[in-house]
Amino acid sequence: MNFLSQYGLFLAEAVTIAAVVLLVVARMMASGGRQRRGEPDHLEVRRLDKRFRHLARSIQQRTMPAKQFKALDKADEAADKAQRKGQAPESKRRIYVLDFIGDLRASQVTQLREEVTAVVAAAQDGDEVLLRLESPGGAVHGYGLAAAQLQRLRNRGLKLTVAVDKVAASGGYMMAAVAEKIVAAPFAVVGSIGVVMQLPNFSRLLKKHEVDFELLTAGKHKRSLTMFGENTDDGRQHVRAELDDIHSLFKDWIAEFRPQLNLDEVADGRTWYGKRALAMGLIDSVQTSDDWLLQASRDAELLLVRWKPQAAFGDRLSRWVAATFERAALHALDRVAERDQLPPG
Known about the structure:
Helices cover about 50% and strands about 15% of the residues. By secondary structure, it is of the alpha/beta class. The chain has 3 domains: about 1-30 and about 310-340; about 40-190 and about 270-310, 2-enoyl-CoA Hydratase, Chain A, domain 1 (Alpha-Beta Complex); about 195-270, no CATH class. Strands 1, 2, 3, 4, 5, 6, 7, 8 and 9 form a 9-stranded mixed sheet that branches. The chain starts with a helix and ends with a helix.
């Protein structure tokens, strides 16, 4: 009975919160047309080297003698002031930091092309770029465009380093190969220089249920394989030839930027972990992006460059609703847990 009463209270709280949320959502939707639109597309630039310095100072403040830390803090303030006034020494190199988290469609290429354009337009001779890359690969045309965006940096004369902390496989490695240097974490997954295509076929199921499927095309190979029609050996051969051609183009791309690779050995679709990838020549060093950036921050200005597209009202609303429901559910569960811990009255 105690459990049932607690469960009933939980349900009552959840229903009440849900009703309030729905009411707020309804009011927001009703006034959506009158609300000011969100921020327009813009480029966000942040100093990562200052962030690293702030992290270090947070610990040093607790571990250093007060007088020593005060002197360090004053030196930081003086350096920042000199930089704001344009009086800082110009010896520090500048490194632009970009991020790319890939999905099957390489949809982040839209942001990447804006970020690359901004860097190419603003960079000076001697500047560098670090791309933190995470992608298992996906559509050829999407990753081909993403790799071409990175090639723009090389064409501008900028030194490009790609850091892989988790995975850069297939199309992800197509992007990474453009870099002058690839660094990867010890257990990052790298490689998969291959091409794959797969699709289900429901023709036998349709025949079983006496359902006809008609596919009309103009051109012998307009649709070589289908999901619902009966596929032929001729169609399969044509698709295999296309895959072989794409694989050949993929290998040519890798060979252009990493001629030292033995493609007969590594371009068979396999993947390797960081240390093994180093032995195969797929990467140049085993290191996390965090260590690379921390080392670079000692003598370089690190600028994180991120394109922030405007979020549509519906997207912002859905994110707000999801977050609100999550907080409400966690709060209700916390209340139930608190009651369980109370002594019986």
